[in-house]
């Protein structure tokens, strides 16, 4: 197969085939509202919906079409992952905080499931569970103990899958066993955002797409928000821009690093191939620094596989080829499969790799979802809204001080490719050790 033939036919998200981001009619910007929300993704719309239903007037602004960023570009896996391990969080913040974060993850996934059901959101939600592969037998033992802890201490249905039983979950011999969590599933993120937007508009939220916010300034006890189509006064401001944060909010920009995440989608595969490779149609992941995440499409005909993208300019072929190689490593029979789509979006990382809900100079921020925004963005956005309302429901383990600023960083993540290559080297060495 030639190099060009190994590229995907489309560079737009697979999800946009069924649910492209909506270009909303441009309506006049109101002179004044109770709350301005910056960012019309999962977090911003979740917050706006809570506020509007509490009787607040809310205007939401997005520089792109609503949902055009990570909300409609992600893998649609409802993982609610936390990148630091339980042990690492305990060491840094104490075991009480670590347990609180794990417990909140369970609550956030239950919140998402209930939100979809209660609002009647048509988004192909499938509570199928998640399989996470172990690279070696030592890693499997560690993961098995962690699954047992989740089951005993938090009541999460989680269990180990030994190597001998692995093919009942995934058709590969690449892993040395793994673990399953039944509280994780998948959805169609494009449809999910479209449905959130529908519900928010019906609740009276004033959403302005393709209207960039250029600055936020104090105005007495409130704020003046400058947008591409005029200024608006607000009593409160909530910023939910995550991986698309820009100079309009420099305090947040210095604390969030945008990192590309890329996903490829295969052409439709024969039913017997899907039955062999993904017999339970679960969501999938693995235990590496730069591990792949992958899943069947909601209709069960494709495999979608994603991972970090070290490129920074344009849309080069190399990141797609790297994901192709990863897919073939897992499933050798797919080495020459044709790809329908390859696309990328920005996730937002911070120095301690935890989602954050904080306030600075009167402005509230809900951001830093670190690649797990399908669960964390709606949850943290809703908690932020409750905090703006002064409600007890605003309690969250992520409500704390702002993440530390990144030294010498002012919005150009020039160092990200080097960091990703460093993680890749760590993964390579860890993989060699695991296979000894």
Automatic annotation (TrEMBL):
<keyword id="KW-0560">Oxidoreductase</keyword>
<dbReference type="Pfam" id="PF01266">
    <property type="entry name" value="DAO"/>
</dbReference>
<protein>
    <submittedName>
        <fullName>FAD-binding oxidoreductase</fullName>
    </submittedName>
</protein>
<feature type="domain" description="FAD dependent oxidoreductase">
    <location>
        <begin position="34"/>
        <end position="386"/>
    </location>
</feature>
<dbReference type="GO" id="GO:0016491">
    <property type="term" value="F:oxidoreductase activity"/>
</dbReference>
<dbReference type="InterPro" id="IPR036188">
    <property type="entry name" value="FAD/NAD-bd_sf"/>
</dbReference>
<dbReference type="InterPro" id="IPR006076">
    <property type="entry name" value="FAD-dep_OxRdtase"/>
</dbReference>
<dbReference type="GO" id="GO:0005737">
    <property type="term" value="C:cytoplasm"/>
</dbReference>
């Amino acid at each position: 197969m030639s190099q060009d033939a190994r590229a995907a036919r489309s560079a737009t998200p697979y999800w946009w085939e069924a649910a492209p981001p909506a270009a909303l009619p441009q309506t006049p910007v109101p002179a004044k509202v109770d709350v301005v929300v910056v960012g019309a993704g999962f977090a911003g719309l979740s917050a706006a919906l809570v506020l509007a239903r509490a009787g607040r007037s809310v205007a939401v602004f997005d520089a792109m079409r609503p949902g055009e960023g990570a909300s409609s570009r992600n893998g649609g896996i409802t993982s609610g992952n936390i990148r630091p391990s339980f042990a690492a969080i305990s060491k840094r913040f104490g075991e009480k905080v670590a347990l609180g974060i794990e417990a909140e993850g369970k609550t956030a996934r239950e919140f998402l499931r209930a939100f979809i059901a209660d609002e009647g959101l048509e988004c192909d939600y499938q509570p199928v569970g998640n399989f996470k592969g172990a690279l070696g037998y030592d890693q499997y033992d560690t993961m098995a103990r962690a699954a047992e802890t989740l089951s005993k201490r938090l009541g999460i249905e989680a269990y180990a899958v030994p190597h001998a039983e692995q093919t009942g979950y995934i058709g590969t011999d690449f892993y040395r066993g793994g673990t399953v969590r039944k509280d994780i599933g998948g959805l169609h993120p494009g449809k999910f955002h479209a449905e959130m937007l529908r519900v928010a508009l019906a609740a009276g939220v004033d959403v302005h797409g393709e209207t960039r916010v250029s600055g936020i300034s104090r105005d007495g006890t409130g704020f003046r928000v400058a947008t591409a189509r005029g200024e608006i006064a607000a009593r409160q401001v909530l910023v939910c821009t995550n991986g698309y944060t820009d100079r309009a909010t420099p305090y947040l920009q210095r604390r969030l690093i945008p990192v590309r995440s890329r996903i490829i989608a295969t052409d439709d595969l024969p039913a017997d191939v899907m039955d062999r490779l993904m017999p339970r149609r679960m969501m999938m992941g693995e235990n590496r620094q730069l591990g792949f995440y992958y899943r069947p499409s909601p209709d069960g005909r494709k495999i979608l596989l994603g991972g970090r993208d070290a490129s920074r300019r344009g849309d080069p072929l190399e990141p797609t080829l790297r994901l192709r190689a990863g897919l073939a490593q897992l499933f050798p029979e797919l080495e020459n499969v044709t790809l329908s789509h390859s696309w990328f979006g920005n996730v937002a990382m911070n120095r301690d790799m935890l989602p954050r809900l904080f306030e600075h100079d009167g402005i509230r921020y809900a951001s830093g979802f670190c690649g797990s925004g399908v669960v964390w963005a709606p949850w943290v956005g809703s908690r932020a809204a409750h905090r703006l309302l002064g409600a007890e429901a605003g309690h969250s383990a992520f409500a704390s001080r702002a993440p530390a600023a990144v030294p010498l960083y002012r919005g150009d993540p020039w160092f990200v490719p080097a960091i990703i290559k460093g993680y890749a080297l760590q993964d390579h060495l860890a993989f060699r050790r695991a296979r000894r």
